[in-house]
Amino acid sequence: MVKTFASSAPADGKTGRREVVYPAAKMTGAVTMQLNTSFVLLPEKPMQKRLFDLRVGYFTDNYSYFADDQQAVKEKKFICRWRLEPKPEDVEKMKRGELVEPQKPIVFYIDPATPKQWRKYLIDGVNDWQKAFEEAGFKNAIFGKEWPENDTTMSMEDARFSVIRYLASPIPNAYGPQVHDPRSGEIIESHIGWYHNVMKLVHDWYMIQAGCSDKRANKMQFDEELMGDLIRFVSSHEVGHTLGLRHNMGASSLTPVEKLRDKAWVEANGHTASIMDYARFNYVAQPEDNIGPAGLYPRINIYDKWAIKWGYMPVFEAKDDEEERLILNKLTVKTLADNPRLWFGSEEIRIDPRSQREDLGDNSVKASEYGIKNLQRIVKALPEWTYEEGDLNTNLHRMHKELISQYKRYLGHVATNIGGVNRNYKSVEEAGKVYQPVAKETQKEALAFFDKQFFTKPGWIIDEPYMLRIYQSPEQELNSLIDYVFNPSACPLLDPATFIRMADFNNSFPDSYTPDEYITDLRTVLFKELNNRQPINAYRRYIQNTFVNGLMANMNNKEYVNTDVPMLMRDCLEKVSIQIGKSSGMANDPATSRHLKNLKTRIDQALNPNK
């Protein structure tokens, strides 16, 4: 059908101007589209539901149901998965442990608009899941295929066919949706989308994260084989979503950091246990480790195989979904006890440092220090790696910005330990606490990392001779990082919720890191010049001002007026003021003297606004 829609964007808050959403609507304020709607008849008998378990990451659906014998309304929450069933004649074979083919395999067709050189890599990304389905008892369960371009009976708009669609767009992304039966969670079809410019995304990640280990990444145009491998990884990740799998941000946290540098181990086992993690590439590996692509790329790994087994393995002995749930619970308890690397860390747990995007290893401080070592090498090499004749430094600027973003990720990974909470879901049969604070020594280690790697000026980021070719003011790049670190909505260092969690846990864990200890330690490292009677450079002055601004904002934040946060902030400000007063005239440096005088005046005014 053809439909016409009004098209405009909300007014810009600063300028008041309205920008149209589609260029075609610029003159008329409307846009006409041709739409295709495809209906699929659902099965008369729904597939048996598999009830959701928080310890295995699946997308879900749910509904409430009512029964005469209930004393409370119940909810059915079940996973989304394809209907994979053995042929009737193969059921006994499957029960004996033989691999069998499903009645109807999962098939993904490749959009014929896809550039030909990338099609085989997309197909490989689909077929890579076959090994995972073997864990569930099925062979040849999933295929990638070229679209039969000469078959006029088939249409890519037909919802009976699942397709990996190529989108000629500058958007640097890909996505993997699915459509399912709301009664059972049975996945009906999927149209994966991959934008052309996802290649820019994986190029930039790989150069900055793995460029020290893989010389193929030391240029702006990757060879076809390398880019094909990266597209294959994207394909596998998105196909995983269409199989029902959610992101497992905790998969990489069970890999010891030093194993990421062990060539034999990491090439055999991979740097993360799941391709559904955001663990991109092995940035911990150092050049001298000589680790090859098998230890740098993500792959379908042990968690993915376990998750597919849990979601797709037929449970023949179960009479219904509730009986099946109990059988799977016993399997889950035993499996996770036998192999902790199969732990699922939800992306929804933003305060658990094990469940983070883009991180690696079981110790974010060590992993980030290795990552920074590589960045310090890369920042020197970027002019050579990004060189293209006639380029007006746009390549260099782009990749240096990506380097800063990677450094920023390391800061975020470490900061999440401070006030962090480890959450491990358990069934009632299992002993132990579900929620525990991050160990005190780990939080102190995180603060020491900041003192070394960030509160002490990281001049290596902007000290290369080429900086004034790409930035008018390189120092502002560092100031932006300071603003990020002390922004409570972005980083936990000064987030009021961090102090509240610390206080709450101290009631149950007396040896945990307390808010008073933390704010004292933080103040000590940020104002150590006052104890050493040393001049304060411009970078540190900006940090101290930003820190004091954060304390004032938290002290006056009405949202937390009934907590201890305002009092804690006030106490810290008073101590900073006293400390500055005792160090008056400590340095023969006009900039330091002006800074401290101004800082004390501002603090005293904030503490006593009516004076």
What labels would you give this structure?
single chain; 611 residues; alpha/beta; Collagenase (Catalytic Domain); five-stranded mixed beta sheet; two-stranded antiparallel ribbon; 13 strands; globular
Structural class by helix and strand composition: alpha/beta
Number of domains: 3
CATH fold assignment of the largest domain: Collagenase (Catalytic Domain)
Largest sheet: 5 strands, mixed
CATH superfamily of the largest domain: Collagenase (Catalytic Domain)
Strand arrangement across the biggest beta sheet: 6-5-7-11-8
Taking pLDDT < 50 over at least 5 consecutive residues as the criterion, the unreliable ranges are none
Q: In CATH terms, what is the architecture of the largest domain?
A: 3-Layer(aba) Sandwich
Distance between the termini: 71 Å
How many individual β-strands?
13
Question: Regarding CATH, which class of the largest domain?
Answer: Alpha Beta
Helix content: 40-55%
Portion in strands: 5-15%
What is the overall pLDDT average? 94
Radius of gyration: 28 Å
Shape descriptor reads: globular
Number of helices: 19
